[in-house]
Structure prediction request, 456 residues.
Amino acid sequence: MSEVADYIDINKEQFKHELFDFLRIPSISTDSEYKNEVIDAANFLLDKLNNLDLDRAEVFETNGNPIVYGELITDESKPTVLVYGHYDVQPPDPMDLWETPPFDPKVRDGDIYARGASDDKGQSFTHVKALEAYQKTGTDFPVNIKFIFEGEEEIGSPNLVPFIEEHKDLLECDMVLISDTAMFAEDTPSITYGLRGLAYMEINVQGPNRDLHSGVYGGAVDNPANVLCEIIAQLKDEDGVIQIDGFYDDVVELTEDDREAYSKLPFDEEEYKEKLGLKALKGEKGYNTLERTSARPTLDVNGMWSGYQGEGAKTVLPAKAGAKVSMRLVPDQDPKKIAKLFKEHVESIAPDTVTVEVNEHHGGHPAITDLTFYGLQAAADAFEAVYDKEPFFTREGGSIPIVADFQKILGAQSILMGFGLNSDAIHSPNEKFALKDFYRGIHTSAKFFELLPDYS
Ligand code: BES
Ligand code: MN
Ligand code: MN
Prediction:
């Protein structure tokens, strides 16, 4: 095993170069202009898999972006790990806030700056390099491994669920290994056992048949922008409690044990506030910040538009207003059911002076990994071996909807072995990933594969 670890240490520069090549591909799934680049990223991974000694490696076409698949079966009696990652990235805008261009990776102060550095190219690439370290040193790989990389995670994985359903045998595994989450804090590893789900809605309000002079018509005509604000203002009360009938019906409440575990996490609320440039925090009454951001559901406007936004003042009463609203969900909330409740609620409080339309965008189920699952202990010990610290078990606020689908369709638990940090600025300008965590990630992955057979 020390040979494997040595190989990783010796080849750091090479790994970094390869990751940089990966990061130079603008594989933005939300923007159809980048279709070819998305395909380039899939082929980049295929090429990396082909450089390993796998039993098979191929790209599967879908109705959307391709799925990259590879497998190595060493011994049927050994556990099979399905490594999942996504090679698509979020758009980089606003561009002018990047200190260096998003698709021209640069290292500053030990961090790799690039779109996708942490989410998820840098993190998912660790497992490919871990396998390489075994093979290039002639070390028997201790488990069976399958890779699945998709290019549509950032748009809700529309083609992955049907793919998994159609390829249950191919994807059969004992667990899924995913590095697409964050550690609790710097040098403080954690294993994520809970993720939130998502219901994403759009509200469109139509008032008069055209923008109106706000002096001539103002006072007689209901204003879609005002109406939209009134609707949104009614969705939560002053305690941050969501006012949609039935919204909390399926929420699994935190137990005393859960809350005690939360209270033991080393969290500095002052520092948290300061780093965000805030004077005060705000959330649901009766819960603390960590609980609010991981175990409680939320409702937030993600975007809003209406009326005049150019320079100076234009006296106009807008004809339309709109908003995108996301709700983060917790077990056992169902995104479809929540979307329906939201739609019915908004329609019920909409005044008849305007037309209000509510539509649903992609969503996803929340997920919880069973804490008694044996794979988690192997992952915890691997983290400890590399970071010299026992990892915390935490729940996170973000969503990886496919985790619930892996559970449902394949009956497989996911091990969320994140190497990122919440401060990585994923989805934001200047996304970064600590170089040391890229390397420690490769070591942790290699260690995990070494330890796993002893735990099964
Ligand atoms: N990797 C993130 C999810 C994440 C981030 C989990 C940080 C835990 C901590 C993933 O790529 C992502 O951005 N997911 C989307 C959901 C998707 C349906 C668009 C999200 O959470 O907004
Ligand atoms: Mn991700
Ligand atoms: Mn993401």
In short: The chain has a mean pLDDT of 97.
